[in-house]
Amino acid sequence: MTKPPPATGGGTRRAGSALAQDAVIDAPNPRCVTTTSEQPGTADRNTRALSLLRIAVGVLFLFFGEYKVFGTRFTLGGGFEGWIHRFLADGAAYPFMIPVLRGFVLQHHVAIAFLVAYGELAIGVALVLGVLMRTASVAGLVYMLALLFSSNYPGAQVAPWQYLGASLDHLVLAMCFATFAISRPFAFSLSAMLARRTSVGTPVMERIREIQGGRTPVIVVPGGDRVAEAESESRPGE
Question: Are 70 and 144 in a shared domain?
Answer without folding.
Answer: yes
